[in-house]
Known about the structure:
The complex is a heterodimer.
Chain A: H1 4-30, E1 40-46, E2 50-52, E3 55-57, E4 61-68, H2 72-125, H3 130-192, H4 199-213, E5 218-222, E6 228-232, E7 236-240, E8 243-244, E9 246-251, E10 259-264, E11 271-272, H5 280-315, E12 338-341, E13 350-355, E14 366-371, E15 374-379, E16 384-386, E17 396-398, E18 401-407, E19 415-419, E20 444-448, E21 455-462, E22 469-474, E23 479-484, E24 489-496, E25 502-505, E26 508-513, E27 521-525, E28 528-531, E29 539-540, E30 544-545, E31 556-562, E32 565-569, E33 580-581, E34 587-590, E35 593-600, E36 606-611, H6 619-627, H7 633-636, H8 640-680, H9 684-719
Antiparallel strand pairs in A: 1-4, 2-3, 5-6, 6-7, 7-8, 9-10, 10-11, 12-19, 13-18, 14-15, 14-19, 15-16, 17-18, 20-36, 21-35, 22-23, 22-27, 23-24, 25-26, 26-29, 26-30, 27-28, 31-32, 31-36, 32-33, 34-35
Chain B: H1 3-30, H2 41-95, H3 102-123, E1 144-147, E2 150-153, E3 161-165, E4 168-171, H4 176-180, E5 183-184, E6 190-194, E7 203-204, E8 208-209, E9 218-224, E10 227-231, E11 237-242, E12 248-251, E13 254-259, E14 267-272, E15 275-276, H5 278-290, H6 296-356, H7 360-386
Antiparallel strand pairs in B: 1-2, 3-4, 5-15, 6-14, 7-13, 8-13, 9-10, 9-14, 10-11, 12-13
Helix pairs in contact in B: 1-7, 2-3, 2-6, 3-5, 5-6
Amino acid sequence: MAGLNGILKTGVSGLLASQRALNTTSHNVANVNTPGFSRQSAEFSPRPAFGSGEGYIGTGVQTGTVRRVLDQFLNVEIRQETALGARASTYADLAGRLDNTLGSQGAGLSQTISDFFAAWETLSGDPSSTVARELALNEAQSLAQRIQSADRQLSAMALDVNARLRTSVSAINTLGASIAELNEDIVRNQGRFQGQPANDLLDQRDELVRQLAEYVDVSTIVQENGALNVSIASGQSLVTGTHASQLAVSTNPLDPQRLDITVSIGGADGTVITEQISGGQLAGALDFQDGALLPIHRQIGGLAVGIAEAVNERHQLGVDLTGALGRELFRDLSTTAQVLAHDANTGTATVDVRIAAASDLTGSDYLLTRNGAAYELQRLSDQTLVALANFPSGEDIVDGLALSLSAGALADGDQFLIEPTRASAADMAVLITDPKSLALGLPISANTGAANQGDMDIELSVNAPSHPLEIRFAAGGTTFDVVDTKTGARLIDDQSYSAGSSLTINGLSFAISGSPADGDSFTIRDGIATLGSNTGTGTVGPITVSNADPNLLDTVTVTFTSASTFDVVGATQGTPTAAVTFTSGDPVSFNGWTMTVTGTPAPGDTVTVSASSAPGDNRNALQLAELGRTLVADSDQATFADSFATTVSSLASITRRMQNEQEARDVLLNQLVNERESISGVNLDEEAANLLRFQQSYQANAEVIAIANETFASLLAAVGR
Amino acid sequence: MSSQQVFRAGVDAILKQQAEVIRTQTQVATGKRFSAPSEDPVAAKLAADLRVALDTTAQAQRNGETAEVRLNVEETTIATVESAMVRVREIALQANNATNGPGERAALKSELDNLFTQLLGLANAKDPNGDYLFAGHRIDAKPFVLSGGQVNYIGDQGERRIELSDGVFVRAGDSGARVFEGILDGDGVIASRAESTNTGTGVISPASAAANWVSDTYTVTFIAPDTYTVSDSGAGVIASASYVAGDDIQFNGVTVSISGAPATGDQFTIRPSERVSVFDVVQSLSAALGGTVNDGAEQAALNNQLNAALGDLAQVEERFSGVRATIGARLNLIDAERVAAQDQALALQTSLSQVEDIDLTEAVSNLNQRLTALDAAQRSLVAVSGLSLFNFLR
């Protein structure tokens, strides 16, 4: 084949190759701004040489293939980093929004809480002033409104999270379908041209997979025929060859406010994959929901319950301007615990959960399950089983919650989700509208006899039902003492014990039964009786709580029979009443009040405790103001204001952490993208140089053809006749 | 290095600088180091805590002011009461002059009755809020009521306490019972009285009791003009002696003397002090001045009553000065707490400022730096993206 014809063919092959190279280069230049485009280069190889006795003579060039310049591993890394970055950025974005609204307003809510308690302080200076009473009532209103508005913001965020889940799922479905279609095109095209890579389709597919990683974590496997199988959420198949599965959102069977993500393959019922999702916007939204939104919602609800419980208890021990005992200032939130039945429950049970003691709440949700004959209550925050002693036949009090079966029965496998405080904040409201109804005074007062010879100072307080009591048996279990461990007052001393006898102390009613042994003790606190290291069989029966001692308002006269003893007349609750030992400064308690007498009484001196209602009385206002400084929130570790500040602060920390993670991921992703770009990206300067190079080679090859032509022509001329 | 990369790197740099400029600009505009808690969670929590503490001190200062107003009004009122009581004492002393005729006594009585009315008015004084000062908690009802010639206290013994700082309370006022009532008569331990039925001219001195005296009611009875017996409450005679005018009579730790000429059957009582009110004291003085003085016996009765009244008045004065002293002490406490609260507020304010305020000079210089950097980023993007080989292929 050597010869002039060969020169021509060689020239043409060079011309065609240069043309292809120019084509490829201009394709690169054209796609300089196409996302996901990988630079292509035409690959040349010499055509098989023509062998002869004179050696092998080259026959020109051929284009082997047009190849994408890329590093597949980089693409995989970028995809992973994209998924993690999108998770962090979605989380940070949502948390940042909550932080901005709730956080800045949250500082405000701490402020509102301390303002509310400060209002009682102001009132204590001028308890009869209607203006000051109006102001305190306004502070209560604004506290309730702030808590409600925080609740509304949190609920709105929950809806927003769900909306994001729906959007992401629909985006994933679209991308999955597109990838499946591209798979089909790629398989067909590559099959048609002997496996030549369909570069641009491959780029498009890679870009779609990268986009998919924005929504969910992705892994891929390339098939022999060029198709790409895509799985999401740790191995759930999304695209298999040319088939794409459908993702869907469904309502969580326990909690209708939550959405689950399901994947269904070929019309089968969806498999729930919510727990497996670890990357992308889906993971960001789900993790924000579980890690920030719900805990904060529960905490704010718990705070509302705690404030309402503590303020109401104290307020109901006071007396208002009309002379009536205080009413509830805030709506009672103890019945706001949500009990959600699983959709698949077959039993008829109605489970009742009441908040018995806000200060004992853990901030966790609980799962109640019937497992065969056993009833299991799981605390979800630490996945611990909490023992149930009486359920379903009686009431159990665990972690500040009173759990009972109010109707029906649980079938085996039935489940109930208990959310103690998530819905509580929404119900926060002020029930009192008349400023006269604020109970700033105490309903009883102590007055010394006009003819008293001695000098005494008296402080009187009303015992709340929440005061912890200690019952201790002595004398071989035949007598017992009762001590109010809050005031230190001995309420009952050496009373002889008869099994089953019921007691009413500080508004708590209960019965002791069985045979207690000497030294046995019981502690009653927050509606629960705890046994000491007892050796007897004594038990404390069901405890019922009312607002105050029923005999609180009775007139009780204490008459000193000497400087160190006194008799008591008129007391229904409290023993003994005759020849009681008096020590100056020690608390004396009867009928649900505690009195501290300091000084030296003379024989015959009297102190009378009787019902009182006086407009200048500020004693209960002082007690209410004191609540704002008492460590009653977070298991008696923090004040109410501080508890909320801590909640906001933890949100701020989460937000900060997520923003930091987002920044770190961004840096990593940028590095990877840069690396990819430096390999696969189009550099216009390089392409310009290539254009010149290929143009020159085109011109040179054209010159070869021209020369071959001229040579041929001169040959023709030489032989021409 | 792809062309897109060159462009993107430039744009990224600009965006980053812009974000920094906006952040610094917000800092300069608000004067605060952070606008959302997440920008500095620790400082945000600290700032919130400090603000609550600052509120608490402000509230404590307001409480102090409330208490101060009430206590100042009370002190002024009691000062007026005291000067009235000085005049009452002068009247008692003037009345004790034997040269007074019925006209003088009538004039003194009339002045005393006016003082009584003034006293009653002062005891029923109101504070600036219109609440009765000395009514205890029953601030809406006039606490001292004159009925049937007797002043009754219908307030209670409640006393409003106000919290100055955590756990520090001050009584912002005193109940009427504590101020005007329950004063021990005599010398606060023991009192001597002459029976109103006495017919002689015996005048008993104020009694004094030794620390170990036997507390009881004793009666000195003259069984003859020159002989007396002392009996205790059980009617048992514990002493009997012949009478020498002006000599000390001593028994069971009690010392007393009688002067003048008691008649047979005259009795004098020495008893432990009893609780009386200011009004009781003034009223009995008035009653004494209203009596007739026609003979020696009536003069002696007047003298006995005036002596008793002067002793009681000394107790009354001691009561008022005592109450004023505690008011002074309470005002001092309020002052001390105010100074402490102000110091604390200043310290808290300083800490708060350190936690959340920016250093303006630094922030402005930061802003300038950021603006320069932004400018540089923008210029370099233009410069770098303008570089293209295609520009030279013409």
